[in-house]
Design brief:
Blueprint (H helix, E strand, L loop, with lengths): L3 H24 L7 E3 L2 H7 L2 E3 L2 E16 L5 E5 L4 E6 L6 E2 L4 E6 L1 H32 L5 H27 L15 E5 L4 E6 L6 E2 L4 E6 L5 E7 L11 E5 L8 E8 L8 E8 L11 E17 L4 E3 L2 E9 L2 E13 L2 E5 L9 E4 L1 H13 L1
Antiparallel strand pairs: 1-19, 2-21, 3-12, 3-16, 4-11, 5-7, 5-10, 6-9, 7-8, 9-11, 12-15, 13-14, 13-16, 14-15, 16-20, 17-18, 18-19, 19-20
Helix pairs in contact: 3-4
Organism: Pedobacter jamesrossensis
Family: Belongs to the membrane fusion protein (MFP) (TC 8.A.1) family.
Keywords: Signal, Transport
């Protein structure tokens, strides 16, 4: 009987110790719906890391789209001012041409007629000039009447005007009148490229007769190729000439092209969009007129309070941040986020988080733990 009393006392003390341990387990929990508690093992597995809110330069990014464009002065339509038959050409769309290069050969009997008329008038002009000078000398010595002298002068000036006009017409078909003689009259003429660039369109074939209004070829000079962007009206005040941007295509989004805004249109479309023209700092031959492009424009580059993107969690359409309130204890708080850039996001009204250890890794693990707690 004496041995049973100590055993009873031990059992009683053990039971009391178990009752005392239960409140310690409850103490690790909380009735606060925005606080989550992790034990040592959970904390280790979650990979929680904390840090401080930081101040850094962050810019708002405007994302727009548009297409590659070429200014009118860099697009050339080649036509034949006097018409004619296309005798030969080697041009194909995409082919490179150099300024002054012969790109086609034309022929027509009117070219012969014009050269003949020029040489004929030139010969008559030489005679008329000698007659004019002779009559001028005779008139000065009163050996010739004024009427005869005036007629000789009029004939000379008329022929000189006709010769000059024909010389200009010949220059339209690339014939140098000053080098024209009766021995080098030709029925063929060459068409030369006025720019260095590439062929955009070929609208004719060998043997076709073209009228003066017909466009034979279209050439593009890519040196001034630019990007034509469509920007919403609300974003226009944020842009300025000289502002930098980065452009990229849908096919190669990882390849960025540096551009600079050179012109902002003052007209709006029916969709309240304005054209913003930007120039490529380095031309790439892969950029073709008409190609669809995307662009990112950084605006309002100000110093802001930021946290890493991983620190923000989305829950029921709102954004939250966790911060440590003790060993293994974290509190979730609602925040208002702003601009994002390079993996960081601006936090508006950051004074409530100043100096607090913010969870910068493992925030979503804490959110899942908090949601599971709410479901229990």
């Amino acid at each position: 009987m004496k041995n049973l009393i100590p055993i009873f006392v031990i059992l009683l003390l053990t039971a009391c110790g178990q009752k005392d341990a239960a409140p310690e387990k409850v103490a690790n929990n909380t009735d606060q719906p925005d606080v989550v508690i992790l034990n040592t093992a959970q904390l280790k597995n979650a990979g929680i890391q904390t840090g401080q809110i930081e101040n850094q330069n962050i810019a708002e990014v405007i994302r727009v789209n548009g297409s590659i464009d070429v200014p009118p002065q860099n697009m050339v339509s080649i036509s034949m001012p006097l018409g004619g038959y296309l005798r030969s050409t080697k041009l194909l769309p995409g082919m490179h041409v150099s300024k002054g290069e012969a790109i086609a050969e034309m022929e027509d009997q009117q070219y012969i007629q014009m050269q003949q008329d020029y040489l004929t008038i030139k010969a008559k002009l030489e005679f008329a000039q000698r007659e004019y000078l002779r009559q001028k000398e005779l008139n000065q010595s009163q050996a010739s009447s004024n009427k005869v002298f005036q007629q000789a002068e009029a004939d000379y000036k008329t022929l000189r005007i006709s010769l000059g006009a024909l010389a200009e017409k010949l220059s339209l078909i690339n014939i140098n009148a000053s080098r024209l003689t009766e021995r080098n009259i030709s029925r063929k003429i060459n068409i030369y490229s006025p720019i260095t660039g590439f062929v955009s369109k070929v609208n004719v074939n060998i043997g076709k007769y073209v009228n003066p209004s017909d466009v034979l070829f279209e050439l593009v000079n890519p040196t001034d190729i630019h990007l034509n962007l469509k920007v919403f009206e609300k974003d226009l005040p944020k842009l300025a000439i000289g502002q930098k941007l980065k452009a990229y295509s849908n096919n190669f989004p990882e390849k960025k092209y540096d551009c600079e805004i050179i012109l902002i249109s003052k007209d709006l479309s029916t969709d309240h969009l304005a054209e913003v023209h930007s120039h490529f700092e380095n031309y790439d031959q892969a950029l073709i007129p008409g190609m669809y492009m995307n662009a990112e424009i950084q605006v309002n580059n100000n110093r802001s309070s930021t946290v890493p993107d991983e620190a923000l969690v989305d829950f029921e359409g709102k954004q939250y941040i966790f911060f440590s309130i003790g060993p293994g204890r974290f509190k979730m708080t609602l925040v208002e986020s702003g601009k994002s850039e390079s993996g960081s996001t601006e936090i508006k009204h950051p004074e409530t988080l100043s100096g607090k250890p913010i969870v910068i890794k493992g925030a979503y693990t804490l959110l899942m733990k908090l949601k599971n707690k709410a479901d229990e």
